[in-house]
Amino acid sequence: VNGLVTFVQQVVTRFPDIHFLFIGAGLQKQELTALSLDLENLHIMDPVPKERLNAYIQSADAALMLVDPVFKIFETNSANKFFEYLAAGKPIIMNYKGWKYDLIETHGCGVYWDNDDHDWVEKSISRLFGDRALLEQMGQLSLKLAETFDSKKLSQAFTETIERTYRPNENRDR
């Protein structure tokens, strides 16, 4: 079962007011494009330049990180889109575990979709998209988490650690 296509099929048929926009040339593009022919709330676009992508992310209510569950590599990878979604202040819906899942759970900035829980879409999507305050709160928590990955702050902390570690000890006997 492909996580993304299954998720989209379940949501678009049960929640016609929720729209999906997929941009790029992913593995499921052909299948999603075929599915979109019968659905008014599923939109597919060809890849756009990176500098234009952020505007599309900003217009979304939430972001998806869904993969086929057989690909365990995603549990340990460091996908740029994860950080882009956090920095954009978007709640993240994901279907795989690993360090990103742990962060989302710990910081309350997204939800986990268990592919095998057939009631999840009905319960969780209703709750998530039926409560704008919850979506906004999760978005703010995403922004807060994104700040912990600020490259300037991380570089400064790294530099300070190296300097403390390798600084000659002024009190050492010569």
What does this molecule look like?
- Helix 2 links the parallel strand 1 and strand 2.
- The chain has a 3-stranded parallel sheet. A two-stranded parallel ribbon has the order 1-2.
- It has 174 residues and is mainly α.
- The longest helix is centred in the C-terminal third of the chain and has 16 residues, at 132-147.
- The chain is elongated, with a radius of gyration of 20 Å.
- The chain has 8 helices and 5 strands; from the N terminus they run H-E-H-E-H-E-H-E-H-E-H-H-H.
Main features:
single chain; 174 residues; mainly alpha; three-stranded parallel β-sheet; two-stranded parallel ribbon; elongated
Helix-strand layout with pairing:
Layout: H1 3-14, E1 20-23, H2 29-36, E2 42-45, H3 50-59, E3 63-65, H4 80-87, E4 92-94, H5 99-107, E5 110-112, H6 120-129, H7 132-147, H8 151-166
Parallel strand pairs: 1-2, 3-4, 4-5
Helix pairs in contact: 4-7
Give the oligomer, counting copies of the same chain as homo and different chains as hetero.
Answer: single chain
Helix-strand sequence: HEHEHEHEHEHHH
Find the count of extended strands (DSSP E, 2+ residues).
5
**Residue share in β-strands:** 5-15%
Number of helices: 8
Question: How far apart are the first and last residues' alpha carbons, in Å?
Answer: 67 Å
Q: How much helical structure, as a percent, in the residues? A: 40-55%
Low-confidence stretches: none
What is the general shape?
elongated
- Structural class comes to mainly alpha
Mean pLDDT: 86
Q: Provide the gyration radius in Å.
A: 20 Å
Strand order of the largest sheet: 3-4-5
Summarize the biggest pleated sheet.
Answer: 3 strands, parallel
